[in-house]
Amino acid sequence: MTLAPIRFNDVSIAYDRHLAVRHLSGSFAPGSLTAIAGPNGAGKSTLLKALMGELRVAAGSIDRGGLRVRDVGYLPQAVDIDRRFPLTVADTVMLGAWRETGAFGSIAAAAALRARKALTAVGLEGFERRHIGSLSAGQFQRVLFARLLLQDAKVIVLDEPFTAIDARTTRDLLEIVRRWHGDGRTVIAVLHDFEQVRTHFPQTLLLARGAVDWGPTETALSPANLLRARAMAESWEEETPVKARRAGERS
Ligand SMILES: Nc1ncnc2c1ncn2[C@@H]1O[C@H](COP(=O)(O)OP(=O)(O)OP(=O)(O)O)[C@@H](O)[C@H]1O
């Protein structure tokens, strides 16, 4: 599996004129397993959305190493996924194979077989006909991992995949992440649990709008870096009132 790095070249991303990510440079090496960690509002989801082409960069550039966005396996945050569609578990997993079957084409028997295997791999054998709206949060996350298995992407991007997921499901899904890494795929995951990051993710981007550190996890999550990230978060929380106070002082 040959891949080029995914490079961020001095990337800034804005909502209106508010910069959510500032001057980020660095790269995800092919086959790397990287956590993106940082305080609330640090720009982690924003970064993934820009990587997935959902947001345009305000400045700088993202080089996806020749990959098309549709070739990346992407799992958005659970809150961004609508489960009210009248889809079965099998239909949802099959969406991972749309490149082979065509969005409206007849479903290839081979892909259907792979879907069943993927469901077995995530511990949901026999769930094919269940409606996705009837699943628990953990079961639904397993379905979405089965869909990623079917998609067979070389780069996999996960946004808080284990939030509100129980310990057993998390352990099973982390095992799938470990296998993806073993296959040589590039995996990037936004995570909040530092212990999980330290145990399972060799590389970390510690983000606080800008990069605090990006490299081996042990170094990136050093106490000094975590303090810096917290201080940066406090400074952007205070940004608006400080400006207002200064304006007031001058008048
Ligand atoms: N659609 C939007 N419109 C305007 N501002 C937004 C939008 N989405 C996010 N933001 C702002 O951009 C900043 C970064 O948000 P983002 O969701 O990327 O952070 P995050 O690091 O993923 O946070 P969390 O850990 O809380 O999920 C925040 O200040 C947020 O309020």
From TrEMBL:
Q: Which GO terms describe its biological process?
A: zinc ion transport
* Pfam families in the record: ABC_tran
The residue ranges of the ABC transporter domain are 6-234
A GO MF annotation of the entry reads:
ATP binding
Which keywords accompany this UniProt record? ATP-binding, Ion transport, Nucleotide-binding, Transport, Zinc, Zinc transport
Which domain of life does the protein's organism represent?
Bacteria
For this protein, the record's SUPFAM superfamilies field holds: P-loop containing nucleoside triphosphate hydrolases (SSF52540)
Family to which the UniProt record says this protein belongs: Belongs to the ABC transporter superfamily.
Classification via PANTHER family:
IRON TRANSPORT SYSTEM ATP-BINDING PROTEIN HI_0361-RELATED, METAL TRANSPORT SYSTEM ATP-BINDING PROTEIN TM_0124-RELATED
Q: What is this protein called?
A: ABC transporter
Q: What taxonomic lineage is listed for the species of origin?
A: Bacteria, Pseudomonadati, Pseudomonadota, Alphaproteobacteria, Rhodospirillales
